[in-house]
Amino acid sequence: MKRKFTNYGGDRPCYTMPPVKVTGGFTLNPEQTNLAAGAVVPFGTLVYADEATRLATLIKSARVVAVGTDAKKVTLEGDEFAKPLFIVGDTVAKNLAAAFADCPKITAVAKTEAGVEITLAKAISGLVVGDALFEVVADSTNVKLVAQPNALAIGEGLNAEIKDELADTVIDITRDSGNGEIYARRVPPVPASLLDGAMLKGTKVIYTQSL
After folding, report:
1. How far apart are CA 152 and CA 203, in angstroms?
2. Are 69 and 83 in contact (CB under 8 A)?
3. What gap in Å lies between CA 123 and CA 106, rounded to an integer?
4. What is the pLDDT of residue 179?
5. For the residues of 146-192, what is the DSSP string, one character each?
6. CB neighbourhood size of 104 (10 A)
C-alpha cells in the first residue's frame, strides 16, 4: 500500500556529534511493501541492513502521546521534524512478549495538531502515555519485530524521503555513534530488550537521555 505524504521542513539535533556513516550505500527492501511513498524516514529509525544484498528493512516504532476516551484511538508523537511510518494494516504491540492474537491492526491514520492519530481494530490493554508501539509480525504464537535491527537510519529531510519505487530510495545508516551519542528522546523508541545499558546491542550506537 502506497500513499503520498506531505513533506515537512526543519531540523533539530538528534546527536551530540555526527555518527559514523556506513559506506557503500543501501536501498529499501522492495519486499517491505507497507511503506508509503512520500513519507520521510525519521532520523534514528531502527534498521536491519543486509550487507550481502545491500537492502535495508525499517523497523517502525513511535511513542504514545495520548489515548482517547475511545481507547482504540491513540495519538503518536509526530511533528514538523518527523512522523511515524505506520500505515493502515500494520500490526502493533507495546510488548514484544505479547500473543499475536492480542495485537491489533491499524485501521485508520490521520495527521492532527497533536501528532498522528491511529485507530486500532481493538484497544491495547493498559496502554498509557509514554508507552512505545512497535510494528510486529507473528512468531509462533507470540510476536517479534519485522527484523532484528543492526543499525540506525541517519538520513534527514528530503534525503530520507521514501520514493515510489522502494529500490530507488537510498538509506544512510550508522552502526557507530562515534565520539557522540544519539538523543534517545528525539528519535523513534527502541525496545528495552535490544539495549545493553545505553548501547544498541550488536552496534556501537550509544544513546543519551539528555534533551
Report:
1. 9
2. no
3. 11
4. 97
5. SS---EEE---GGGGBPPSSGGG-EE-EEEE-TTS-EEGGGS----G
6. 18
Query: What is the phi-psi region of residue 38: left when phi exceeds 0, alpha when psi lies from -120 to 50, beta otherwise?
Result: left
pLDDT the model gives residue 11 = 60
Residues in the chain predicted with pLDDT less than 70, given as ranges, are 1-11
Contact call for residues 175 and 20 (beta carbons, < 8 A): yes
| β-pairing verdict for 199-200 and 173-176 | unpaired
- Would you say 208 and 181 are in contact if contact means Cβ atoms under 8 Å apart? yes
42, three cell numbers: 525519521
DSSP 75: E
Q: Could you give the CA distance from residue 208 to residue 16 in angstroms, rounded to a whole number?
A: 9
Whether pTM > 0.70 for this model: the answer is yes
| Three-state DSSP class for residue 205 | coil
Give Cα 175 to chain centroid, integer Å.
16
pLDDT of 3 reads 47
Residue with cell 508507552: 131
